[in-house]
Write a structure and sequence with these properties.
heterodimer; A: mainly alpha; 77% helix; globular; B: mainly alpha; MetI-like fold; 11 helices
Chain lengths: 342, 277
């Protein structure tokens, strides 16, 4: 356990370094904006003096390196500046919109792992027979369309034609849930509002599934490919020789070794949900961070762009760290090698 | 090349992929002849026939200013394929060269290049392109730039891992012993062994570039009207669901067909050339 902790600590250390690099990269990208952000924010009717004041307030009159210095010192106090779009601190905006996005991504992630893995196992178990062919085509279709296309198609079928699920939004208009954590599924439970709880899930189902589809396909393909390799190893042959049932061989002996090499990529795909959430939130009018991100980008709102991308990247890196540690925990070879290495 | 095509066509799924991709390429190349209304690619209006559901004349319907959806989709394929070619033509050589350098030269090069790669890979794929497009003007060229910027690190990482494995092999040592230059060892000795993995990844990526580019324009950060683009057509159509369903569904299916085709070929290639991860 100690070696795992040491590995985790080292991993977190390098990640902080990478996050520092990310902040420089985003800062540089945001500062190459053509034109004057202060002028863009204030509009064509502002006086030269007003623009000058805003430039000074944003430190835009200093060199880029100095500006980055100000940014870092503000960041160390948990201050990402004021959004020129909402006129509120960027951290307030992010705190308001992030939970909705996280809720969507978490449910999509659970769907991705919970459906993708069993489908991959099933395809490998019936390799070359019809369940394999069906699952292969479905999973390939899943990864072959952007999530906004799936969102539109699913919305058309399940919300408009069949009318099983709501069209857009996070809650019905009549549903009021006091904000505590910002996660409506949790807040409704805290408030003891069962109708609200059901309403929240009812609204979550379609966006989460549209978001998860390509990840489900990806996970299925990965598990299938890795399990096919595992099936060729002698110990599977031995398990067969002992007469273990095929189902047990698939779920116990072939799956776990195949999971380890798949996990890293699945982690990346889980984190990619953060990017695709931009598309799904746009279709379903989901009041999350991605929708906010698009708004601030269209309005060239520097502080908000930098803050949003930085927070999304931090979540992305965090997911990868967790997956990395999981891989170590699952794999005795890495687990012991990490110990022996020190 | 001919041999790979023959092996590919032995696999029915790859054959379907080849057919789909061939169809898409033909549609884009001969859009001028195939499109029933070639002039509808631009800013044309025909208010007599606006917002029509699919029928005999307009078999994918017409958009809100009366332009034939089918014609516009054919021309939109041109933009998608062009972007795919340009993005990969820039991202792959850059990524491959940096990967070879990081893997073969080692030391300071390896550390610096791989940390920079890590930074680029630490921003979720689409988010980096969105951020870049957000600060630049939404033009075709900038769209290519944004997607290229998020694509090269994947090739750097792939080639880096291969190079690290290859550089301890005997043939590399032999080349070094007879005094081959470092450039020769990297590009003439190691690179050929990385080509199968690179080609497989490129085929799969071609579809994904189309997908990402359409995602950018879906958000209004890509190709601008009146140039026909599949992503912005879906975005426009999504606002008129469910009544004018054809506005969003057909461009969406067009993306699906193209990307599906490239993925089928990529899968087939991977079976032939070995796994790339």
């Amino acid at each position: 356990m100690l070696t795992v902790l040491r590995h985790a600590a080292r991993r977190i250390g390098t990640s902080l370094l990478v996050l520092f690099g990310v902040s420089i990269l985003i800062f540089v990208i945001a500062r190459v904006i053509p034109g004057d952000p202060a002028r863009v924010a204030l509009g064509p009717n502002a006086t030269a003096e007003q623009v000058g004041n805003l430039r000074a307030a944003l430190h835009l009159d200093r060199s880029v390196v100095t500006q980055y210095g100000y940014f870092l010192s503000d960041l160390s106090r948990g201050d990402l500046g004021i959004s020129l779009y909402t006129n509120r601190p960027v951290t307030t905006d992010i705190a308001e919109f992030l939970p909705a996005t996280l809720e969507l991504i978490l449910v999509a992630g659970v769907l991705m792992v919970g459906l993708g893995m069993p489908l991959g196992i099933l395809a490998a178990r019936y390799l070359g027979r019809w369940p394999d062919h069906v699952i292969r085509v479905i999973s390939l279709l899943g990864v072959s369309a952007p999530s906004f296309v799936w969102a539109v198609i699913l919305m058309l079928i399940f919300a408009y034609w069949l009318q099983w699920l709501p069209i857009a939004g996070r809650l019905s208009e009549a549903t009021l849930i006091p904000r505590i954590t910002g996660f409506v599924t949790i807040d409704s439970l805290i408030a003891g509002n069962w109708a609200g709880f059901r309403d929240a899930w009812w609204h979550l189902a379609l966006p989460a599934f549209a978001l998860a589809l390509s990840g489900i396909g990806q996970a299925t393909r990965l598990i299938r490919a890795n399990m096919i390799e595992t099936y060729e190893t002698p110990y599977i042959e031995m398990a067969r020789a002992y007469g273990f049932p095929e189902g047990r061989i698939a779920s116990h002996y072939a799956f776990k070794p195949s999971l380890i090499p798949s996990l890293t990529i699945i982690g990346l795909d889980l984190a990619a949900l953060l990017g695709n959430a931009f598309l799904v939130e746009a279709v379903f009018g989901w009041p999350g961070l991605s929708r906010y991100g698009v708004q601030v980008i269209l309005r060239k709102d520097l502080n908000a762009i930098v803050g949003t991308v930085l927070i999304i990247s931090a979540v992305f890196i965090l997911v990868n760290i967790i997956v990395d540690i999981l891989t170590v925990l699952l794999n005795p070879r890495i687990r012991y090698a990490a110990g022996a290495g020190n | 090349m001919i041999r790979s095509l023959r092996i590919l066509s032995a696999n029915p799924l790859s054959l379907v992929g080849l057919a789909l991709v061939g169809l898409v390429i033909l549609a884009a190349a001969f859009a001028d002849f195939l499109a029933p209304f070639p002039e509808h690619r631009g800013a044309v209006v025909d208010f007599v026939n606006f917002n029509k559901p699919p029928d005999g004349t307009y078999f994918m319907g017409t958009d809100l200013v009366g332009r034939d959806m089918f014609s516009r989709i054919l021309y939109a394929y041109r933009i998608s394929l062009l972007l795919g070619v340009v993005v990969l033509a820039v991202a792959v050589p850059v990524g491959v060269t940096l990967g070879l350098m990081a893997g073969y030269l080692g030391g300071w090069w390896e550390y610096a290049l791989m940390r920079i790669t890590d930074v680029f890979l630490s921003i979720p794929p689409l988010v980096l392109a969105i951020a870049i497009m957000g600060v630049l003007q939404p033009t075709l060229l900038n769209g290519m730039l944004a997607v290229t910027a998020m694509w090269w690190p994947w090739y750097t990482r792939l080639v880096y891992n291969i190079t690290r494995g290859e550089k301890v092999e005997g043939y590399v040592l032999a080349a070094e012993v007879i005094g081959a230059s470092r450039a020769h060892v990297m590009f003439r000795e190691i690179l050929p062994n990385a080509v199968p993995a690179i080609v497989t990844k490129m085929t799969l990526d071609f579809g994904f570039v189309i997908l990402i580019v359409s995602s950018l324009s879906f958000l209004g950060l890509g190709v601008q009207p009146p140039t026909p683009d599949l992503g912005s057509m879906v975005a426009e159509g999504a606002r008129y669901l469910p009544d004018s369903w054809w506005l969003a569904v057909f461009p969406g299916l067009a993306i699906l067909i193209a990307v599906f085709g490239f993925n089928l070929i990529g899968d087939g290639l991977r079976d032939i050339l070995g796994p790339d991860r």
